[in-house]
Amino acid sequence: MYAAAGKWTQRDRPRQAMKERGVKKEPGQSWIEAKGLVHAFFAGDKLHPFSDKIYKAVADLNARAQELGYVEQQYSLRKEGEQGGMEPAQNVHSEKLAIAFGLLSLSEIIPIRVIKNLRVCNDCHNWIKFISKATKRTIVVRDAYRFHHFKDGACSCRDYW
């Protein structure tokens, strides 16, 4: 909240307290099963053997979503000085990678089912709504709080989560 509001000092206090106490934040991770194998993704992950195809698919999906009216939320949780050397891929959340992989790997009649260990961010939630409409696919995401069933550009949570 503090970072989104540009209140960097307030953002850094709890982080510093966590660091002093040795508390580590759990990284966001998403999983999808395809052809009997579970595939795991982290934000900005390039370890998957098909990462080039997955990132190309994400770029293509972004373009399709934008044609339907999707606008990426441009807020950043990092100060300008902290972003030096960051690749744009590092801003691709794990659920986007998992969904792109699912679209590449699964038959059109199979719903895309993704599990995420943290809450889906607002931007990804909006993106998935547009992707479900653009691809005419059902996408189910289980995040830390609930199931989200995306179909035809809408989510079962009615944007309350």
From TrEMBL:
Region (Disordered) location: 1-25
Looking up Pfam families in the UniProt record yields:
DYW_deaminase (PF14432), E_motif (PF20431), Eplus_motif (PF20430)
Q: Which domain of life is it from?
A: Eukaryota
Q: Where is the DYW domain?
A: 90-161
UniProt cross-references to InterPro entries, sorted A to Z: DYW_dom (IPR032867), E2_motif (IPR046849), E_motif (IPR046848)
Q: Which GO terms describe its molecular function?
A: zinc ion binding
Per the record, where are the segments of Basic and acidic residues compositional bias?
9-25
Coiled coil: which residue ranges?
none
**What family does the entry list?**
Belongs to the PPR family. PCMP-H subfamily.
Name the record gives this protein: DYW domain-containing protein
**Whose protein is this, by species?**
Punica granatum
